Amino acid sequence: MTTLISSPESSAIATQQTAVPAVARRATYVTYRIRHTLASRFAFLIICLAIILSALAYGTVHYWALALFFLGGIVILILWLADSWILGSLRLSRNVLQLPLVGMFVLGVVQLLPFRDPGNIGTPSIPLVKSLSFDPYATRLVLIEVAALLIYFAATLVFTDTPKRLRLLVRTITMFGFFLAIFGLTQSFTSPNKVYWVREMPQSQAFGPFINRHHFAGYMELALAVPLGLLFSGSVEKEKRFIYLFAAVLMGVALIITNSRGGIISLGAEILFLVATLGLGSRHKKRASAKKIPRIKSAATKAGLALALIVALLGGVVLLGGEEALTRVVGSVNTDDPTTGRAHFWSVTADIIKTHPIIGTGLGAFAVVYTGYDSRNGLYRLEQAHNDYLQVLSDGGIVGAAIGLFFLVSLFRMGFARRESHDDFRRGVATGALAGCFAVLVHSFFDFTLHTPSNALLFLILAALATMNGRVEDVQSRRKRRSRPESETSTAML
To answer: Which one in 133, 246, 284, 334 has a CA-CA gap of 20 to 30 Å to 352?
Structure first.
């Protein structure tokens, strides 16, 4: 008996096992045979390539790179439709994390409506525009970026539909992060003021292919979280543990060498998150108890792994950069203003929020609006607020903040639920993905790494890895599970 289902949560040809009395079994397991069309293979390939190319193209901060990024999303849509035509069913994900992206896009469209009276603005330095956004051009650009990110995110949820593809996506992130760290370290020692040893950046501190060193640090936070999650969860085979550890340590060393204080703080937060959360989860505790593993021994093992990781990071930094690499972090702090100007930026942003609390000033309009509220001379143009939470309130108001809060709450609620999996690899991936997202969210208090499309893409892909359903779990692991309530195993049972 076979059934064709249109949603990706069950988008497969399901073969029902031998029927048994309801008294004997609470549910009937299903083995999903996923049919992968050529179009779906190419769509998944483009997702993997986008992770790599978006970072190599200066983080996709230039117009030409953003155009190619959006073009890749269009190609995915075409392949998606071709896949649906072949299968006779359009595959869509039910993951609620897509809704905030749609909501942010709708908010941007509303901000472009001509509902503002230019005569009531009251700030001479702000352009006289009729749209709710003070910078309609920037808002349109943000809408293009959000639309592209939504396509990539939704496609990742749909086309990462087997354990094999999950492992391939994880290996892509880990391997690319490893080679990117090598590239960044090599370039920082041989040509620190030039990107790709050619393009000189006199007004910014570049690192690797990124024009801003903080954005490289943010990318490393995301990439190294995946192997760390697998290591802390014990989800890697013994013969592969050193490889994953070496890759994670090298990425961590590259992060520290960037001299990004926000990145270093976020790396520490990431490690603490892994140590603190691995003991959570009722089923995981039950299984540990069944194996008679003392909690104290388990906690000591995790703490020892974290300590060994920190020692390896510090040792790697000293080996590659000497004492200078460590003292630069402290030496870069200005005693007169430890926030390096951020306190002033945030106070001005708070004034903008007070004036436009409901719908904000427009997505991407911060740079234009800031000069009109700057309490100093008004001539300094600041592109970002250096605090993503304040900028969300400034650009999108209470509406934008509510959309962002819904995304974060849903992400961690669903992510912790996915960590309950009995598939070790699946649990490790979910743990690492959540740790990476948490680290970047900490970094967002000080910088704006998620405004770089390559970082935003990897963040969303980690969010997808953390919240994917049981299709990506190993079938053999699912068959070994004991019976559970249907509400908890609906993706694996009929």
So the answer is: 334
Distance CA 257, CA 185 (A): 8
CA 356 to chain CA mean position, Å:
29
pLDDT tens per residue, range 184-217? 999 988 888 888 988 887 767 889 999 999 999 9
Question: How are strands ordered across the β-sheet holding 30-33?
Answer: 2-4, 13-16, 30-33
Please list the ranges in the chain whose pLDDT falls under 50.
1-6, 8-31, 282, 284-286, 288-293, 322, 477-494
Q: How many CB atoms lie within 10 A of CB 15?
A: 12
Position 9 scores a pLDDT of 46
CA dihedral (200, 201, 205, 208) in degrees, to 10, reads -50
CB 161 within 8 A of CB 8: yes
